[in-house]
Automatic annotation (TrEMBL):
PANTHER family: ENDOGENOUS RETROVIRUS GROUP K MEMBER 24 GAG POLYPROTEIN-RELATED, IGE-BINDING PROTEIN. It comes from Hirundo rustica rustica. GO terms for biological process: viral process. This is Uncharacterized protein. Pfam families: Gag_p24.
Length: 233
């Protein structure tokens, strides 16, 4: 995909279509990509700042060239490969959906090379002249692939920790948890660690939500895939 991300114009990207009538291609300054690179270095890939910069860029026209340029800045090699796979997957699905549209719908003519800026569509200037329906799907699928790759690459906590209240017997909490959690080894785990007094700990795993209630009637519900729910029971 290197051709899709290369440009003979050097350090310029994020073009906007100034005039649809005359098909004028006007690249913005290098500042946008510089800001994105700075946000990744200073705040981290999955930070709110990075998402803010992407959201700001997404408000303008982004061609496939711009999406590839952003991906090269955001991701190291492994994540970049995943991004390429994900965008290709989303583009194929978009083309399949387009094929189900009515005979007169222009989106039926869109192919994956157009959405990805590959094959005969690698020139950024040509991409900027795409029909609005093509530009929209290019940007939607490309930005979705960027965001999903960021989410995958961002470290996540793998379990939920519930801290026992000072005045509550640990066995009281552990007993109720044992009763409501079906011990199993599913494909997707919610691992719950209960920290008791003096550092005692018990762990349970379940694919289903776990509800725990203390003697005062306070309830904590743990959902699979939730990364952190601090609770004092």
């Amino acid at each position: 995909m290197a051709g899709a991300a290369a440009s003979s114009e050097g350090r310029q990207a994020f073009p906007v279509l100034q005039s649809v009538t005359h098909n004028t291609y006007q690249p913005l300054a290098w500042q946008a990509l510089t800001e994105l690179r700075g946000a990744v270095r200073k705040y981290g890939l999955g930070s709110a700042k990075v998402m803010q910069v992407l959201s700001y860029s997404n408000a303008s026209l982004l061609t496939p060239f711009d999406i590839w340029s952003s991906a090269r800045i955001l991701f190291p090699l492994v994540e970049y490969d995943f991004f390429e796979h994900k965008w290709t997957q989303l583009a194929v699905r978009a083309v399949e959906r387009n094929a189900t549209l009515g005979p007169g719908d222009s989106r039926r003519t869109i192919n994956t090379d157009m959405l990805l800026g590959t094959g005969n569509y690698t020139r950024a200037e040509g991409q900027a002249g795409f029909e609005p329906s093509v530009q929209e799907q290019c940007q939607q699928t490309g930005m979705a692939a960027l965001v999903q790759t960021i989410q995958l690459a961002t470290p996540q906590e793998s379990f939920v920790t519930i801290v026992q209240g000072v005045d509550e017997p640990f066995l009281c909490v552990a007993g109720r948890l044992t009763a409501v959690v079906e011990k199993q080894w599913p494909l997707s785990l919610a691992k719950t660690s209960i920290v008791g007094l003096e550092g005692t700990k018990q762990c349970y795993m379940s694919r289903n939500p776990v509800a725990i209630m203390n003697p005062e009637g306070q309830t904590a519900i743990i959902w699979p895939h939730v990364t952190e729910i601090p609770q004092n029971l």
